[in-house]
């Protein structure tokens, strides 16, 4: 399980660094990472950005995020998994899947790979 945690931390580091390198507001990074990693629904602004709703994004943005719309587009294209953004349907599927962690665990369960978790049986 420690190996699995290392994989998750690697993803988190990569996404966090990618967002910070593209200068989106620091206070937005944790919510974006929770969405990517766990499929946790973000706030209204980030949801609009993820669903590719430009007018709604501007309408819901605070002053800082309004100035960073280009940065957010760069983050989506270069940092977020392509399956996680672009339409409301992709957004809803990503949340339902549990993000990266949910998808990894689902694949692991489907393959029967429990890494010794049921060895006592």
Q: What is the gist of this entry?
A:
The chain is mainly α and 121 residues long. The chain has eight helices and no strands.
Could you characterize what this model shows?
Helices cover 70% and strands 0% of the residues. It is mainly α and 121 residues long. It has one domain (2-105). α1 crosses α2 (26-38), α2 (26-38) runs parallel beside α8 (99-111) and α7 packs across α8. The radius of gyration is 16 Å and the shape is globular. The model is unreliable at 116-121 (pLDDT under 50).
Structural features:
globular; mainly alpha; 121 residues
What order do the helices and strands come in, and which of them pair?
Layout: H1 2-21, H2 26-38, H3 44-50, H4 54-60, H5 63-67, H6 69-78, H7 88-97, H8 99-111
Helix pairs in contact: 1-2, 2-8, 3-4, 7-8
Q: State the helix count.
A: 8
Distance between the termini: 19 Å
Strand and helix order: HHHHHHHH
Extract low-pLDDT stretches: 116-121
> Which whole number gives the mean pLDDT?
88
How would you sum up the global shape?
globular
Structural class: mainly alpha
**Percent range of helical residues:** over 70%
Q: Please give the radius of gyration in angstroms.
A: 16 Å
What about the largest sheet?
A: none
Total strand segments: 0
Count of discrete domains: 1
């Amino acid at each position: 399980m420690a190996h699995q945690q290392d994989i998750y931390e690697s993803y988190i580091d990569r996404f966090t660094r990618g967002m910070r390198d593209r200068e989106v507001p620091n206070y937005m990074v944790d919510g974006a990472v929770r969405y990517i990693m766990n499929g946790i629904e973000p706030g209204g602004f980030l949801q609009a950005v993820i669903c590719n709703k430009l007018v709604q994004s501007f309408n819901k943005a605070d002053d800082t995020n309004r100035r960073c719309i280009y940065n957010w587009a760069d983050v989506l294209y270069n940092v977020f998994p392509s399956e996680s953004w672009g339409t409301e349907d992709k957004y809803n599927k990503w949340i339902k899947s549990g993000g990266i962690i949910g998808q990894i665990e689902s694949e692991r369960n489907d393959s029967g790979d429990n890494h010794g978790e049921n060895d006592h049986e």
